[in-house]
Amino acid sequence: MRTDLDRLFNPRSIAVIGASAELGTISGQPMNFLVKRGYGGALYPINPKYQELLGHKCYGSVEALPETPDLALILVNARLAVKMLEACGRKGIEFVIMFSSGFSEIGEEGASMQEELLAIAKRYNIGFVGPNCQGMIGVPSKAYAGFGSAFIYDYKPGPVSMVSQSGGFGFSVMSLAAMEGGVGFRYVVTTGNEVGISTLDFMRFLIDDPQTRMIASYTEGMKDANRLREIGEAALDARKPILVWKVGNSEEGQRAVASHTANLSGAMALYQAAFKQTGILQIEDIQDIVDYSSAFQCGKVPCGNRVAIITISGGAGIMMTDEAIARGLAVQPLSPQTVEKLRPLVPAFAALGNPIDLTAAIFDDTDLCRKALELIIDDPLVDSVTMANAGLQGEIATKVAREVANVARRSDKPIMLGWSARKEVAGEAYALLDEVKVPHYRSPMRCMRALAALTHHAEACRRHEARKAEPLLRITSEQARADLAGATTDLAEYRAKQLLARYGIAGTAEGLATSAKDAARIAGSIGYPVVLKIQSADIPHKTEAGGVRVGLKSAAEVEAAYEAIMAAVHRYKPDALIDGILVQEMVVDAVEVILGINNDPLFGPALMFGLGGIFTEVMKDVAFRLAPIQASVASEMIREVKAYPLLSGARGRPPCDEAALVDALCKLSALAVDLKDHLGELDINPLFVLPAGRGVKAGDALIKPRLK
Amino acid sequence: MRTDLDRLFNPRSIAVIGASAELGTISGQPMNFLVKRGYGGALYPINPKYQELLGHKCYGSVEALPETPDLALILVNARLAVKMLEACGRKGIEFVIMFSSGFSEIGEEGASMQEELLAIAKRYNIGFVGPNCQGMIGVPSKAYAGFGSAFIYDYKPGPVSMVSQSGGFGFSVMSLAAMEGGVGFRYVVTTGNEVGISTLDFMRFLIDDPQTRMIASYTEGMKDANRLREIGEAALDARKPILVWKVGNSEEGQRAVASHTANLSGAMALYQAAFKQTGILQIEDIQDIVDYSSAFQCGKVPCGNRVAIITISGGAGIMMTDEAIARGLAVQPLSPQTVEKLRPLVPAFAALGNPIDLTAAIFDDTDLCRKALELIIDDPLVDSVTMANAGLQGEIATKVAREVANVARRSDKPIMLGWSARKEVAGEAYALLDEVKVPHYRSPMRCMRALAALTHHAEACRRHEARKAEPLLRITSEQARADLAGATTDLAEYRAKQLLARYGIAGTAEGLATSAKDAARIAGSIGYPVVLKIQSADIPHKTEAGGVRVGLKSAAEVEAAYEAIMAAVHRYKPDALIDGILVQEMVVDAVEVILGINNDPLFGPALMFGLGGIFTEVMKDVAFRLAPIQASVASEMIREVKAYPLLSGARGRPPCDEAALVDALCKLSALAVDLKDHLGELDINPLFVLPAGRGVKAGDALIKPRLK
């Protein structure tokens, strides 16, 4: 499939298959808008009904075209659309956008036609967009190739490109963001059912497109989600922010996805993990695109998360402080030196902590504003500055804006404003700010949200660089691969732990006994107390079957327990095939955690961490990351769960061996990568985490081979 | 303090103390704006420097005024302001707004001056607003009595009144909401340090004000928060929504509150509890005031939480579904009858689940829109309807809007639209919707948020009515009051449980032993196994002192344990005063929960519920409500915690006796009310919740008397 998409967005010629003379209809609009918006290339409407359309010669078929156009738009019904795609292929057309609906989003019949589309596109190596989409706009080439109300405007070119699975919604976002938010777009494309070029293909292309500086996306699900991380990391390398509006996160929403663009929605937890790992910014409303876009265009990168909040009315400062804290920024006091210099400049009742309330005194003296700003932005404890100007307007607004602009000009630190005055009364002020790319927002909350996005992206870039320098554990075990590749049933307990041991994850001391005497001998070599557990593929619920005894303190107790278990299990399931009874050291003083791998069909192997039992099952207090991970990411996972204090020494416990836990997660990550072709799921439950310095031990484990 | 505030907002005459001829300054603006905005009453500037100001005779002092004005504005510095307030009092002025800063927000000196203000206001029964505020606007009377950029506009009167502790921020919100969001305001007042009339006083007044239909508020904290619930309930009786923007919720934000308006910020958890109990809607940005205001003005009340989501492009539907679910609405399939009738109207690829995607086919046939809308809104499984129209514009937009308006006219169910078209291209459509008060929003997300607010408020009103009919348990115990009133130290374990028993909350079977023989005798009468626990006010940490033994199965074990505890405790603290050793039944099969009362200085007695230990301390998984509560509220608390499944039978446990737990919470609520003058804190930790039908038992308890 073609993924060098310059030609798609900048076609020299376009065929419009199924173009209609009824210009208001869906099949009439694309031709009409291409003409109206001044597309400069050759246009070939195709419809046997007409001789001519909008001044362009109309052709009876694809075959009849005088040249091979760069791009074809297909507007006919689904059944005919399949034939037209074939015709485009034969003609050698490199890019096709199919608008037609009626494919996999309507069920089985449509799905089989959709498979035909895929086969044809592959056969002819067509760069294929759609079906069930609303087209695209290449702003620089004026290729307004689509339909809908967004197409009535001429857009000014800019640095933002957007990929949207939803046509109507995507274009309405673009239109509003451009016309009211002043966002400049470059390429906007809607992808619908994504049979051919996917959202991630487009992102990959846009990362390399020098004129695209920010990528926005609306997505219901990604069929090639396993590439999300690689693409996110490429964007970090290029320092281009990716904004993703991911919908279909509730059960009900996922059902709706199925009937809309029929994209696999997948587990939101794994999308979140991928977003987190690669600094992809999630957005939640149209406004975010507008707000983040102006933040990123300021051209400045905060070196840390410490924000100084300046107000002329304390109310906004408090709210911005709450929002900053909620979004992971730090609101710390200024340095004493700065406070000392500020004090003589402001009224006695001004607050000089952080937020810094310059009070309404600014109405009487704008000089104060500049001096204070300079002192604050130069404070070494400050990484970025926000200022809330309430409804400041008129002459004084212009003066304040001028001072802000001057300070912004000579500082590398971002400065962003919350400013609620209407454009009519503060237009001059806003223009001064725009000139030096100082972002300003109508609401102080939005100002802080945008600053947080800018800060998080800068942090993600720094973290990414650091991680590239961090060692990534790789372990290969031919034996483990061979064992698992041949497995047809689950590997339970001791077999699973043997496999874990090949990757350096140690289990509890244990041995498999096949007689009571044997059990006592093993217990003696391990040391008391011990635990006995039945081992049988036929008995998945050991405790229920009476197959577990704990706290056995002597050889006599062990022998008695052995016989008792055998009897109980025999009563529970007389025909169970029994491997033996596992004699295992009994671990005390440990916190029990769960480590897991889910080899997701969409994302590939994902790692899971949480505390045992209730914390995972009831409280859903778990962290996910896509494998492989470095030690710093393992650390992040561990500290992300709410129950983390239980590991770090809450309620008078000794702190656990977190270093060993990090190590175990890295080894599990290496295992996940090494076995990704053969592994379905893996759970270590529990992993005992002993007090600091004493390591971790896998207590029990279960491995499910991957079902082909 | 005066709280009949009609005269404040509609004064017949206003004195402006400290009015300045420099009209741009803070002390120059109020007089200037009153004149400019056309205030019709008498104006008395007071400043010995001038003979005349803006055409009004200027007076040298308050005493010199020819009449007693209804309202005085004080604009002089803090020190002088105190004197001026005294002068106003002597003159008999009923209402005073003090703008001056420099009181408790600057520290101790200011705080003592603030106390003087309070004393004077009380002495003369002055309705006092401020200090450290920015005045008010009474829109109907054109009493634009304040300063700042909001005052340059003439506002159209409307049904929304607003109280804001922050002046600059409050007025900037008002101005933006009015001028860009079209919100019509009635009374807007800023309260600053709230020495006199409080936010809640204003709310109480506005609930009774017939022309106010919605109350908005920005607050940093309420000194009289104990009235929040009563006022919230009065608003529910009046069916008026209260919107509260509560800031100062982070630790850093609370610090900022102290230096801004110096209001007590209090525990956010209790504000949340009060908001939840009384259906007060929390808002988070300026936009919410605008959006909710138009939602509430639609005049329709959803009878339930089932929303039908109609789109012309599926993308918006999925996102709205996510948002609806996240906000507690239900997105359920339409009835089969409705689907059957819809099917022939729409293209084959249209999705008729919910969301209902009518697809872009609507471009070709607006009739479809009306028919579909009628069928959907009349579906008995639908309580409200939203429709997302993307960027629909021009003639077709007008047609669609006309159909929507027609349907809205003849249905009692709310219908609200997400519509992203710019006003320039859909103005006619928007006007048609405005005419019939159909709310429409630029973003589908905002549409759903607003509908959720409308739905939650309707639910709160219904719940409130139901609760008024629900019995409220009251228990009075003179003995308990007397016991606690006399207490100077904490009541621990058995004494606390004796007090609980007076309110019907049973404890474990137990007895206090003072000898080993005694202990064995008590154990025999309780039945084995038992637990032994040391009882001593000097030993708060019993386990640490070796003062607890569990699982004792015979008289011999009990006697041995008695002696062992005594020996251990003696080693631990030789001089401890010992009451004896408690012999207690050992409860098995129970889930351990915590019930608590915190008699908060701001809110009064609040009830707490959570699961034991880690769940409360580490996971912070707790529910709060203000006492008293009915059984339905107790139920709500129990089901609110994330760990609730542990009570209802997760992980193969038998379901717990939830009815008994509800009963215990109601009894604790009765206790909290009965003892509110004497109780500081109370914890039942653990309360054993036995399997269904077997009740609950207090395992341990601690009561701290209220410190005067």
User: C-alpha Rg of chain A, in Å?
Assistant: 31 Å
Strand content of chain A: 15-25%
Q: In total, how many beta strands of chain A?
A: 30
Average of the residue pLDDT scores of chain A = 92
By secondary-structure content and strand pairing, the structural class of chain A works out as alpha/beta
> How many H/I helices of chain A?
24
Helix content of chain A: 25-40%
- Protein chain pair with the most extensive contact, residues per chain: A-B, 104 and 104 residues
Labels describing this entry:
homodimer; 708 residues; alpha/beta; seven-stranded mixed β-sheet; seven-stranded antiparallel β-sheet; 24 helices; 20% strand
Q: Care to describe what's here?
A:
The structure is a homodimer of 708-residue chains. By secondary structure, chain A is an alpha/beta fold. In chain A, 39% of the residues lie in helices and 20% in strands. Chain A is built from 24 helices and 30 strands. Chain A starts with 5 loop residues before the first helix and ends with a strand. At the A-B interface, helix 5, helix 8, helix 11 and helix 16 of A face helix 5, helix 8, helix 11 and helix 16 of B.
